[in-house]
Amino acid sequence: MNQMHVSELEQNGHHGVRYCFPCTVNDEANIKLEDVLSANERRIRRNHLVALEGDQSKTVLCVLNGWLAVAKCLSDGEKQIIDFALPGDIIDPSAADGKSSALQIEALTDVSVAALSDTTWQEMKRDWPPLNRLASQIAAASRARRAERMLRLGKGSARMRVAYALLELCVRMRAIGHSEGCNFHVPLTQQHLGDFAGLTSVHVCRTLRGLARQGIISVEDHMDIRILDVAALAEIADIGPEALWQEIVPAAA
């Protein structure tokens, strides 16, 4: 796998980047914000590592397009995906020392991000209070969904973990307009889903097939997912879609 640090990313200049966070501030502020995002746009190729744990890290990433995996790794290469970053998400990988990255970040698709120095990001939040509030909401949504997954990783069965993962992804895709009802595509392999749910790819495959046989979901063409029975999937996941939406979708969305 290739490694590409943010400082080494291709600088594309102004490419008409649109403000992709799930809210608007006001017309004047949006224009200024789009200018900042566009000026700091970077494009990352699929399968490139953006950051490794322990790297120097003083950059905040605002995801404009594409998917990134945020993970922790053991010395033997075993990996736990902590989160998927989608358009509108903000990644600050800094550890408590404020200097090093506590996370590994990998591009799962071709990705566009605004790579902002920590100083620039703090100034933006200070100058635009609505952006500061939105950033707080996005951070709160991230904490909430990680807490829900942690509960199921620690106490849930394989079926519960996979059911929850599918519901979470469905809710998040709908929030950014990338889902038609309960039909959505995720650019993930079963290994990615396993690293997310704490399962082997074989176990994920078996679980998805079981849910499909029950008529709860269908999976086609490399993770084109259709949830056929939302109530049944929510019961397995032990959480309702409405409650999950309130927890993990920023209020401004």
Q: Please tell me the overall pLDDT.
A: 87
From N to C, what is the helix and strand string?
EHEEEEEEEEHHHEEHHEEHH
Distance between the termini: 35 Å
Poorly predicted ranges: 2-25
User: Percent of residues in beta strands?
Assistant: 15-25%
Query: How many DSSP helices?
Result: 8
Keywords:
42% helix; 253 residues; alpha+beta; five-stranded antiparallel beta sheet; Jelly Rolls; Arc Repressor Mutant, subunit A; four-stranded antiparallel beta sheet; single chain; 8 helices
Task: Describe the protein.
With 253 residues, the protein is an alpha+beta fold. The protein folds into 2 domains: 6-127, Jelly Rolls (Sandwich); 152-248, Arc Repressor Mutant, subunit A (Orthogonal Bundle), CATH 1.10.10. Helices cover 42% and strands 22% of the residues. It has helices spanning 27-39, 118-127, 129-155, 158-175, 190-197, 201-213, 230-237, 241-248, and strands at 10-11, 41-44, 49-51, 59-65, 68-73, 79-85, 90-91, 104-107, 111-117, 179-180, 183-185, 217-220, 224-227. The strands form 3 sheets. Strands 1-2-9-4-7 form a 5-stranded antiparallel sheet. A hairpin with a 3-residue loop joins strand 12 (217-220) and strand 13 (224-227). The relative contact order is 0.13.
Q: Quick gist of this model?
A:
The chain is of the alpha+beta class and 253 residues long. It has helices spanning 27-39, 118-127, 129-155, 158-175, 190-197, 201-213, 230-237, 241-248; strands at 10-11, 41-44, 49-51, 59-65, 68-73, 79-85, 90-91, 104-107, 111-117, 179-180, 183-185, 217-220, 224-227.
Itemize the secondary structure elements and their pairings.
Blueprint: E1 10-11, H1 27-39, E2 41-44, E3 49-51, E4 59-65, E5 68-73, E6 79-85, E7 90-91, E8 104-107, E9 111-117, H2 118-127, H3 129-155, H4 158-175, E10 179-180, E11 183-185, H5 190-197, H6 201-213, E12 217-220, E13 224-227, H7 230-237, H8 241-248
Antiparallel strand pairs: 1-2, 2-9, 3-8, 4-7, 4-9, 5-6, 5-8, 10-11, 11-13, 12-13
Helix pairs in contact: 2-3, 3-4, 4-7, 4-8, 5-6
